[in-house]
Amino acid sequence: MSQALDLQPLRSYLRTTYDMRMVLAPLEELQQAFYKQKQPFIETLDKQIPFPLSDTLKQMASKEKIDLANPTQAQEFFVQMQKAIQQIPVVHVTMSFQPTIALINTMIRWLSENITSFVILDFDIDRTLIGSAKIQFNGKYKDYSIKKRLAEHPMDVANQEQTNG
User: Fold this and answer.
1) Cα 22 to Cα 160: distance, rounded to the nearest angstrom
2) Do residues 56 and 7 touch, judged by C-beta distance below 8 A?
3) Are 104 and 130 found together in one domain?
4) Cis peptide before 89 (omega within 30 of 0)
5) Is residue 131 in some structural domain?
6) Three-state secondary structure call for residue 10
7) Are residues 110 and 66 in the same domain?
């Protein structure tokens, strides 16, 4: 098995922290089925893990030359996968509304094109925010909200609104 696990095949499953939990749960289920039920990993993948995630996991194992019938190899592979998923950097976004799938996809596409690393979005909803968002990533914080601009420069924002209105 290679040192750094390539999570790229899981990218479409790992867009938000919610998605991350939805991928980690089946991986935990694999572990539990193996230990508690003495059920082979491949059998659990086929019977209990939803398709196409189960198929993607099998393809990733195959690419890494992991024999899922070998309990030791499969165990190490899935533990390494869980750790790798948990270490994906998270971009925290605070917005005034619940993001739509289209917005999430647009943000992921932009991040993929502009940030070299694989990242996951984590959303917080703050109804007191006026427009735009607050973004936190790698210890950096940016407030793009109109509320912040109003607090700092109320007359500039009012004049700009009159000009545009």
Assistant:
1) 44
2) no
3) yes
4) no
5) yes
6) helix
7) no
